[in-house]
Design brief:
By secondary structure, the protein is an alpha/beta fold. It has a single domain, classed as Dihydrofolate Reductase, subunit A (3-Layer(aba) Sandwich), CATH 3.40.430.10. The chain contains 4 helices and 12 strands. The strands form 2 sheets. Strands 1, 4, 5, 6, 7, 8, 10, 11 and 12 form a 9-stranded mixed sheet that branches. A 3-stranded antiparallel sheet has the order 3-2-9, with no helix packed on it. A hairpin with a 2-residue loop joins strand 2 and strand 3. The longest helix is centred in the first third of the chain and has 11 residues. It is globular and about 45 Å long.
Length: about 160
């Protein structure tokens, strides 16, 4: 499975339920990578999306602890086990974990590829992702040229879990 995430230099991902920054090229890449695929997110991430609606052109899987929670246009799961049962119907390479922090943590052991937008800036944040540079089981395999959005510098990186 894949992880797709945008992080700052402290591997922070959000603050008060919002992304740290909105970079048009990052959004374009996210759309390109996930269109026609399966995306997995938590309820709070879904509710932070435009119109609080599932993303068009993708199979949306939403995790919620609330057994009454339902979302039109999405598959709602209430546990990791439920979600893994649904995901078993799809190819691993077509599944993308898109957040938030607790969902990343839950699926991290099952993922082998991470698409990371690494932003060379430190934001005030209250949610974080694992620092893949410090995780001995992951290795950066690709990095784009430096990108800029106004005065913000960032890179697109691909990490892969090392085969043991």
């Amino acid at each position: 499975m894949n992880i797709i995430v945008a992080v700052d230099k402290n591997w922070s991902i959000g603050n008060r339920g919002q992304l740290l920054v909105s970079i048009p090229e990052d959004k374009r890449l996210f759309r390109e990578e996930t269109l026609g695929k399966v995306i997995v997110m938590g309820r709070k991430t879904l509710e932070s999306l435009p119109g609080k609606q599932p993303l068009y052109g993708r199979t949306n899987i939403v995790l919620s602890k609330n057994p009454e929670y339902k979302v039109k246009g999405a598959i709602v799961c209430h546990s990791l086990e439920d979600a893994m049962n649904v995901l078993s119907q799809y190819r691993d390479e077509d599944c993308f974990i898109i957040g938030g922090q607790s969902i990343y943590e839950m699926f991290y052991p099952y993922c082998d590829t991470a698409h990371v937008t690494y932003i060379d800036y430190q934001y005030q944040a209250d949610t974080h992702f694992v620092d893949l540079e410090q995780d001995p089981f992951w290795k950066m395999e690709a990095e784009s040229e430096e990108q800029t959005y106004f005065d913000l510098c960032y890179h697109f990186r691909m990490y892969r879990r090392k085969k043991v």
